[in-house]
Structure formats: C-alpha cells, structure tokens
Design a protein that fits this description.
With 222 residues, the chain is of the alpha+beta class. The protein folds into two domains: 102 residues, Glutaredoxin (3-Layer(aba) Sandwich), CATH 3.40.30; 106 residues, Up-down Bundle (Glutathione S-transferase Yfyf (Class Pi), Chain A, domain 2), CATH 1.20.1050.10. 56% of the residues lie in helices and 7% in strands. The protein is built from ten helices and four strands; from the N terminus they run βαβαββαααααααα. A four-stranded mixed sheet has the order 2-1-3-4, with helices on one face. Helix 1 links the parallel strand 1 and strand 2. The N and C termini lie far apart (36 Å). It binds glutathione. The site of glutathione (GSH) has 15 residues, from helix 1, helix 3 and helix 10.
C-alpha cells in the first residue's frame, strides 16, 4: 500500500488508522505548498488534488473519510458491522467529515488568509465554536465519540483536534471544551497515536506561504 501524506489534519486521520491497524505502507510525501498535488501522477490517484489518498492493491482511494471506511471494512475493525451501533458510529463519523473538518478549514482561511470579510470571519469562528460545543456535550456523555467503543469517528476527529489550538487560537483553543480535551488526552495515550504523530518528523515540508503556495492551494484567487 502507498499512503500519500502531508502534515495536515486530514492525512493525520489516515496515519492514525494505519497505525491502529498495524500496517506498514510506503508513505509518499506530497508537498502542497510546492504544488505537488497538481502533478499528473498524483491527479491519477486523486483527481481532487488534495491529501490524503492511498493506493491499495492497485485501487486508488481518496478523501480521508472514504479511506477510513474502506480500511475499516477491509480489516473488520473500528466500525460496528450493523444495526444501531453502526448508525451511531457513522453519525459522528460524518459529523466530523462534513462538519468539524470543513468548518475548521474555512475558519483558518477567514481568520488567517483572507481576514478582510467580517461576515465570513464571524460566520466560521462562530460555526466552529458551535461544532465544538456539540462535540463537548457528546463527549461528556459518551465514552468515545462514536459510542461505547473506540472507532473511526474518534480516528477522524483526532486529525482535527490536533490542530484545534491553531484553528481556534483567538478563541482559546480547547480551553472551553474540557470533555474534548479529556478525550484528546485519552486518544493520545494510545500507542498508535504516538506512532502516527511521529509521521510529522519523517519528512520536511515547505513552511513558507509564498505566492507559489498561494497559487497551488487557492487557485481561485489568481
Ligand atoms: N474532503 C477531503 C479534504 C482534503 C483536504 O482538504 N486536504 C488538505 C489537507 S488537510 C489539502 O490537501 N490541502 C491542499 C490544497 O487544498 O491544495 C478529505 O477529507 O480528504
């Protein structure tokens, strides 16, 4: 298996899943600030030009949510097979995939990249705070995000909570969400989380957000 990786939240979900499953894929770094997500070779794997993506037995799978579901089903782990438990796990998994992730991304965009729209800044800072409040209430009542057992909802969330201090810096990061913080500490205590976190030190990615990076990541502005 090949895993296409960058040290950003969605790829870290896949890093944790891989480490939880004890797999040893080839990790292929794709430097998005250099524009490597737009090469023909990478577009053949992910036509959406974003990370993460995998190739497994010749099958390309892209989008972090799709990859987690694919691996959970393939290995029969981290997703209840049917019934109410599956419904509960999938509800929270998609709450992360279609809520926490996109709203975190837009919050960063409108608090750090384009700060000239008060409307957008207000909308996304408030929406990410609202999403974290929903999470905090859930984690005050449930052992794990997706139910009584650790699963893909937790694995997906970990990728984004790692970045919460940055995403919500002006709002105090996780300090307003004690149940999310306690959950994060519990996931970080898992050996797989430590191993997945180490993926960050395996590669050196470009740090500057220069014009090449802006053109590669926000092409709609040029
Ligand atoms: N829905 C996609 C979103 C992927 C995504 O936005 N990835 C970011 C990193 S977290 C990326 O590749 N950004 C580079 C770019 O947009 O050019 C997923 O969950 O995999």
């Amino acid at each position: 298996m090949k895993v296409y990786f960058h040290t950003t939240p969605n790829p870290f979900k896949v890093a944790l899943m891989i480490e939880e499953l004890g797999l040893a894929p080839e990790i292929v770094p794709i430097d998005t600030r250099k524009g490597e997500q737009h090469t023909a070779d990478f577009l053949a794997v992910n036509p959406n030009a974003k990370l993460p993506a995998i190739e497994d037995d010749g099958q390309a799978v892209f989008d972090s949510g799709a990859i987690l579901l694919y691996l959970a089903q393939k290995h029969g782990q981290f997703l209840p097979a049917e019934g109410a438990a599956m419904g509960e796990m999938l509800s929270w998994f998609f709450f992360v995939s279609s809520g926490i992730g996109p709203y975190s991304g837009q919050c960063v965009h409108f608090t750090r990249v384009h700060t000239d729209s008060d409307y957008a800044t207000n909308r996304y800072t408030k929406e990410i705070a609202r999403h974290y409040k929903v999470l905090d209430e859930r984690l005050g009542k449930s052992e794990w995000l997706g139910g009584p057992d650790y699963g893909i909802a937790d694995i997906a969330l970990w990728g984004w909570v790692r970045a919460a201090g940055f995403v919500m810096e002006s709002q105090g990061g996780l300090s307003n969400y004690p149940n999310v913080q306690a959950w994060f500490d519990k996931v970080n205590a898992r050996p797989a989380a430590a191993k997945a976190g180490d993926w960050a030190s395996k590669f050196e990615f470009k740090a500057e957000m220069d014009e090449t990076a802006m053109r590669a990541m926000f092409p709609q502005n040029f």
